[in-house]
Amino acid sequence: MMLIAPSLLSCDFSVMGEEIERMDKSGADYMHLDVMDGHFVPNITFGAPVIKTVRKYTEKPFDVHLMISEPLKYIEDFANAGADIITFHIESDSDVQETIDKIKACGKKPGLVIKPNTKAEEVFPYLKDLFMVLVMTVEPGFGGQSFMADMLPKVKEIREEANKVNPELLIEVDGGIGEATIKQAYDAGVDVCVAGTAVFKADSATEAINNLKALCK
Ligand code: DX5
Ligand code: ZN
């Protein structure tokens, strides 16, 4: 079954806790939290203190997507704030293996993200140590962009390689997922879809999530 992770980037930030509660009741599997530092990506969102204050609104896993230049420096902060899955970019300035090890040492699940211009094989050396790989289907930084279907062959490559070394690995895609695109992601072997606009701009988040899941068969 396809898991759906609503991206809080598209929520009403003045009532972020209630938005998380609403997503919980609407059938979200994970809460996707986009952390941007205005340096790694040209946008700024929120950090660990904000995540900590909204942690109490759901028991569902917090899937924290770090779009920051030096993730290693802040792993402990995000772990203490209540992140469950901590996903960082391979293109960041931190040492990849050291950052994975740090996430694990904090008792959290490590995820590695690749931007559209990064090849699938870059993540191969780390697959055995990862909980998840996130393949960006837009350039990171903003919600509401168009899905890049040409990223899907990377999902297939990663799935094939992971089947040899870590069959439990989850593959997530992020950006432009909606009713018109989710089936392609499912067919490529994606396990988790992030969806911002498609869920938050819908009249009913419950219906939106149900519809997205129903398309995955
Ligand atoms: C983009 C973020 C995404 C974004 C997705 O940098 O990582 O999580 O919010 O938004 P939609 O689903 O609207 O493309
Ligand atoms: Zn994201």
TrEMBL record:
Enzyme class: isomerase
Residues holding substrate: 7, 65, 141-144, 174-176, 196-197
Catalytic activity: D-ribulose 5-phosphate = D-xylulose 5-phosphate
Pathway assigned to this chain's UniProt record: Carbohydrate degradation
InterPro entries listed in its UniProt record: Aldolase_TIM (IPR013785), Ribul_P_3_epim (IPR026019), Ribul_P_3_epim-like (IPR000056), RibuloseP-bd_barrel (IPR011060)
Co-factor binding details: Binds 1 divalent metal cation per subunit.
Stated family: Belongs to the ribulose-phosphate 3-epimerase family.
Record protein name field: Ribulose-phosphate 3-epimerase
GO cellular component: cytoplasm
Keywords: Carbohydrate metabolism, Cobalt, Isomerase, Manganese, Metal-binding, Zinc
Binding site for a divalent metal cation: 32, 34, 65, 174
Domain of life according to the entry: Bacteria
Catalytic residue list: 34 (proton acceptor), 174 (proton donor)
GO biological process: pentose catabolic process; pentose-phosphate shunt
EC number(s) reported in the record: 5.1.3.1
Pfam families from the UniProt entry: Ribul_P_3_epim
GO MF term set: D-ribulose-phosphate 3-epimerase activity; metal ion binding
Cofactor or coenzyme needed: Zn(2+); Fe(2+); Mn(2+); Co(2+)
